Automatic annotation (TrEMBL):
It holds the Pfam family TPR_16. The lineage of its organism: Eukaryota, Metazoa, Chordata, Craniata, Vertebrata. This is dolichyl-phosphate-mannose--protein mannosyltransferase. GO terms for molecular function: dolichyl-phosphate-mannose-protein mannosyltransferase activity. SMART domains: TPR.
Amino acid sequence: DLRPETSLRILWEHDFWGSNLISNTSHKSYRPFTVLTFRLNYLIAGGLHPVGFHVVNIVLHSVISVMTLDVFSVLLGGLEHDEKGRQRNRAPKASFLAALLFAVHPIHTESVAGIVGRADLLCALFFLLSFISYCNAFRKYDAEGEFSFHWIFASLLLCAVAMLCKEQGITVLGVNAVFDALVICKMDILQLGADLLRKDTRSETSLPWKRGFFTRILLVASGGVALLYGRWRIMGTGPPAFTEVDNPASFADSALVRAINYNYYYSLNTWLLVYPWWLCFDWSMGCLPLIKSIGDIRIFAPLVLWFFLIGIICQALCSTNTDERRILASGVTLVIIPFLPASNVFFRVGFVIAERVIYLSSAGYCMLLSYGICTLSRQGRRFKSITSIAVTGLVILNILQCVRRSHHWRTEEDLFTSALSVCPFNAKVHYNVGKNLADRGKETSAIQYYREAVRLNPKYVHAMNNLGNIFKERKELHEAEKLLSRAVAIQPDFAAAWMNLGIVQNSLRKFDEAERSYWTAIKYRKKYPDCYYNLGRLYADLHRTVDALNAWRNATLLKPSHSLAWNNLIILLDNTGNLAQAEAVGKEALKLLPNDHTIMFSFANVLGKLKKYKESENLFLKALHINPTIASYHGNLAVLYHRWGRLSLAGERYKLALKLDPASPGIAENYNLLKKKLEQVKEG
């Protein structure tokens, strides 16, 4: 989606992962504005160069950290304006401390260092802009009781932009509504409840509600409904389908088990805010086993969370200090409301814990922490000294953890292995470590991690598929067949495993079974060029020439850059004597892949047999210019010169070929024939 050749229109039809939104397999994450920024990065850098992507993420986090200063000044100090309409900051130290704590919080490392975290950063940027715009609507409210419709509409528009960066952006409407009630209308919830119970609408606490509050809430609610309706229409076929390994608690049969585990997840998210030294790139697949018994000691974690949360809420409701009521209620609001889309309350989500989704909620935590620190520092000189030292130490520790965690994100190897100590029971962690090792050629170590992934999750078909591929490459074909058969038995629509099973069965000379496996793979993935290529190889082994040619032609139609399929087409047509057709295919292939030396080599052989020596020579020389170390290229060019009658050039090429591959019997035999011919010429 970020490549220039892709139409911009397509971006509005795809989810964040590039699938069509109306597809049943779509993730339904609709973030076109985020993808547009990736596309701009690609355009400026001229390709997939990571530095530019990281620079933008760092700049975004820096801008957001500065913007939180304005947000915290409103929530901590209240919204006041001078006679010129400029905002006053009544809590400069507290708001600066909160912004500083937010800027260096290690929980943000995933959003900043991970490229896809751009969605959370852009969403947060426009979330804060929407909130600030809502605040701007009240510049004349204190003096004249007026508010600006323009700024409220601007706030709604920015909310829509935030939502097009990430779905979480819509939660700013809830924050704005609570802000209006607590800060603008200075609502006392307990007093209001008492008034409503007494049906006393003449109370002083009811007066602020008559100054346009319901009009503003109606505007905000209408905007929210419109955005949700638009999002629902865009989503097409309904919510995404997640599996049990993505979010096991949501698949629990008992509502009580689901509720307990959801609350356990909330407590862990809170713990990551308080103690961000226990970070992991993935928390699924057994990382957090379900709490199924009242005797599980982990059940105390949600109890502790709710103990503190209820305590803060009670203080926010009952405090006689209006500033404290506003600050505590605003802080809790900023923690909870942005987190709601990830809470499993309204719909199932595709993860257990994701550090990136608490990027915005961390602002509420930093605000509450700053208020607590400032409150302690006012208890006397001793407390002020202790809190100053503690804050300095906390900031330094957070910076060090940011550096440490950012280092983990520099390479796949460091990121995946760092998770082993945090989530040793996570099958996906072991799978990723194994895949990274396999990509680096360390197959023996990779096998151990893949086996552990399958042990931890006996239905982990992707681990079975990759492990089967390693055994296939190591020629342990029966072990590979057993693993791949098990994978397709567990997940019958796993097209890649069916194709790999077909390759193994072909190697075991189980040709009928291999053919069935290939066609089953194509049944589940209609556009599967690699499978058509392997099917063509099977047909070629069975001397079913027409079927092989059709299979390879399908591969090239589905993937015009499929070099192996083009090459095999040319070679098979050459071997069966269809030289004119081979020439036509060679020309077509080189138009699409003008720098592919393997196609040049095969096509040059065809032209040589057609006695188009000059054209053939040019292609051989171009192929050798690209890759001069392949003995067969020199050897076949020598054969061409031999046929052409340029015997001295043929001799030079044979020598070069034998130098590169002295053990090649074909080249040595041809060279001996040339030497005999040269002797005959001399004698004649």
